[in-house]
């Protein structure tokens, strides 16, 4: 029986549109949020984190979402040239840049009227992200949108061949690159793993350990804002940094051990910046990047040399394709003990305090909790 009637509920109805880019989900919030207050995009990011984080948990966490759900909230931009402002959200909080989301949002902006008069063969959409203005170019032919490419904010190599002491693995040499967010990069082969054939769980454990080490031992800096100076995650690569016509593979583990299904747009941006810095790639030479999880592909190339503070930087073009998967209206009922969402975590280290609070069946995730429910499932 088809029906558009909403079920019994209390409070706001959150309407969303779901897409994916290379397998990585994107949940775009269409309505249901209150007004987002802030004089600029970073102030709006601070506001939702402080005042409206319960809505992020409601949309990203189970039972409406899942551990690896990703979201985008449309906001007003203070930049006259921007078609839309965006706040990104995930299982841990709010990121500053997301390439797979930008690719999806470019297509969404054209299809849903955020650009008044789309142009063929390509329509430009200016998306204001917390890291800055990102220009996207959406294929548009016979009223239909297609592939999307974007030009990044200035991307740069922050640190090359630095040594960090990784718990359980000893001293490991990593690079750190910025592509709208900071990532640590290291070949999976260093740990005896393979991007394409090793178990995802093993790759996640290694990447999480590297992220923890870099966060503890390396102080990051960004010329534009201290709010950009944090490590978003670790990207494990296949070690193939020298230019080749063949695809190079990677897997990104970000936020709270969240696994990207796509090749990671901001990660491709940062990896191209590192390769350019090392002399592995020249301007306008296109490389193909393959996701170690789904096999989906992005292309990337450095298109312009620029400066970012004292860093020698490049503008990177990343290209991919997004697809629609559906729409939904989400509600809650006040008498639902799990109304605000929960997460199941594959593995965790328990403190004595956490053990005293553990419910062996389910745990409702609270902002102050860093632990979750262990399962005996093996993630392939």
UniProtKB/TrEMBL annotation:
SUPFAM superfamilies in UniProt: Diaminopimelate epimerase-like
Keyword line: Lyase
Gene Ontology MF terms: trans-L-3-hydroxyproline dehydratase activity
Record's keyword annotation contains Hydrolase: no
EC number(s) on file: 4.2.1.77
Keyword field contains Lyase: yes
Reactions that this protein is recorded to catalyse: trans-3-hydroxy-L-proline = 1-pyrroline-2-carboxylate + H2O
Subunit structure: Homodimer.
Record-stated family: Belongs to the proline racemase family.
Name of the featured protein: trans-L-3-hydroxyproline dehydratase
The species this protein was found in: Latimeria chalumnae (Coelacanth)
